[in-house]
Amino acid sequence: MSYTYVKIGGSFITFKERPVTLNYRALDSLGEVLDRVYGKTKLIVGNGGGSFAHYTVLKYREGGSLNLLVKCHESTRALNRIVVDYLVTRGIPATSVQTSAIVHYNDSEERFEVFYKPIETLVDVGAIPVVYGECIPTKRGVLVLSTEKVFELMSEFLRPKRVVLLTDVAGVYTCDPKKCSNPELIKKITPSNVDYILGILRGQSEVDATGGVYGKILTMSKLASRFKTEVIIVSGFDVDAVVEAIMGGTPEKSTLITYE
Do residues 74 and 133 make contact, with C-beta atoms less than 8 angstroms apart? Predict the structure, then answer.
């Protein structure tokens, strides 16, 4: 079995407009999904920062690098701990992996280094490692690393057959479906239309600490192209659709990012 990456989006697991506020309905949906797919594919899970990390980064980014780093780690660790503890209480063998302990930025060579072996071993023994978006220390300051970027870095060593992103809506739209009157679901993003889609998103999507929807699509389209894998963006509340996506299908209500 090859790897399947599942990202628990911050907009899905938290209420992003309310600082440090969890969506418990999302936790229940996530637990049901993992109950149904555990043991059928090699799972690597990551959670976004949502109203925990993004609020913290915006609040402390002017207060100095060290203070930002510590506050960012505190908030990202808190959300990850809640998610993992919940899954464990359901009998799902999830375990937390601190991203900044396995991802290092080499300042002299200006590149990331990834210590992926702990992830590989955890999956091999049947655990579900849960990484998360986090702040990475560098000599020039703090880098805010999205979960999508973490997935991209790990994919160099642990190639995914599919990446599934769970959000609070059914996929990527031409405008925010919660705010505009005529949103259209973008069913497929390919190398031939990705620049056009990014142009739409650049002008219409809200930007958070990791670049908003625009940043996610930019990173995931590069991952899909580089590693010849597919990315599915789907509502985390639609349990059947998420299970279908994890198991290799393309739900009717979803966005597929492909490399061809």
Answer: no
Domain boundaries, the chain: 3-257
pTM (predicted TM-score): 0.94
Return the CATH number of the domain spanning residue range 3-257.
Answer: 3.40.1160.10
Sheet holding 160-167, edge to edge: 94-96, 128-132, 42-47, 3-8, 160-167, 230-235, 255-257, 188-189
Tens of pLDDT along the chain (260 residues) come to 689 999 999 999 999 889 999 999 999 999 999 999 999 999 999 999 999 998 898 889 887 899 999 999 999 999 999 999 999 999 999 999 999 999 999 999 999 999 999 999 999 999 999 999 999 999 999 999 999 999 999 999 999 999 999 999 999 999 888 888 889 999 999 999 999 999 988 876 555 555 688 989 999 999 999 999 999 999 999 999 999 999 999 999 999 999 98
Q: What single-letter amino acid sits at 252? A: E
**Token pair for 120:** 């590989």
